[in-house]
Write a structure and sequence with these properties.
CATH topology: Rhopdopsin 7-helix transmembrane proteins
Distance between the termini: 40 Å
CATH class: Mainly Alpha
Number of strands: 0
Order of helices and strands: HHHHHHHH
Length: 231
């Protein structure tokens, strides 16, 4: 990406991510949404780490390639854990939390094994291919889990406004990211496509930031609003 546009997107995303974390601390919600905050903090650290490695070794270096793919896999795992933490909040009152965590670990290991099996036949760049395959597969799993979670929200008539909006934002984010993969594959020759994923990454912390600023932890949606959303 051209330097100026890349820098604007990087700094905007970082500002939004840090703003959410600060607001979580100020509004005493950091621990409640710990894994959402952890994901955003890791995103900030990763952005600066990539910038440093890129400046030190260059775009086409093996160092940057390995750093990029493995930090991407790390962030995807962190986002997967954030989704599972929302599962725990939704099902917490039903005492299903330990089953959710066990199932999440099993699913994560199964996804990792499947990703390795896909790339194991090719010894060339096995490590980077595995990281890429794991990230892509976990995004798909995250998309499916988020829609399952949204179904549970509707079924259980969950009305905690923050929680509902966090889940809805994740569903939209995963859906847009899936569309982004298709867009990159179909239109990678167009320069604007290279802006899509970084710009999209800014929308998730933006929506979470708006949610935590606009609604208190005690805010609840009316049941009629949930029915309207379902329709």
């Amino acid at each position: 990406m051209p330097g100026l546009v890349a820098a604007i997107i990087l700094y905007l995303g970082t500002a939004l991510e840090l703003s959410f974390v600060v607001c979580s601390l100020v509004r005493r919600s950091f621990l409640r949404y710990f894994f959402l905050n952890l994901y955003l903090l890791l995103t900030v650290l990763t952005s600066f780490g990539r910038h440093f490695v890129l400046a030190s070794y260059g775009w086409d270096s093996d160092q940057y390639r390995y750093f990029y793919f493995y930090t991407d896999a790390l962030l995807t795992v962190a986002l997967y854990i954030a989704v599972i933490s929302l599962f725990s909040l939704v099902f917490g009152e039903l005492r299903f939390t330990k089953y959710v965590r066990f199932g999440a670990v099993v699913l994560l290991l199964a996804t990792a094994c499947f990703s390795y099996a896909v790339v194991a036949q090719s010894a060339e760049r096995l490590s980077t291919s595995f990281a890429y395959e794991l990230s892509q597969n976990l995004y798909f799993v995250g998309l499916v889990l988020t829609y399952i979670l949204w179904g549970a929200v509707m079924k259980l008539r969950e009305t905690r406004t923050r929680l509902v909006h966090f889940i809805l934002s994740l569903g939209l984010y995963f859906s847009a990211y899936a569309a982004g993969y298709a867009l990159v594959n179909l239109g990678s020759k167009y320069s604007f496509v290279s802006y899509f994923a970084p710009a999209l990454a800014c929308l998730l912390p933006l929506s979470w930031l708006i949610t935590i600023l606009r609604y208190d932890e005690d805010s609840h949606l009316a049941t009629a609003q949930l029915v309207a959303v379902q329709r």
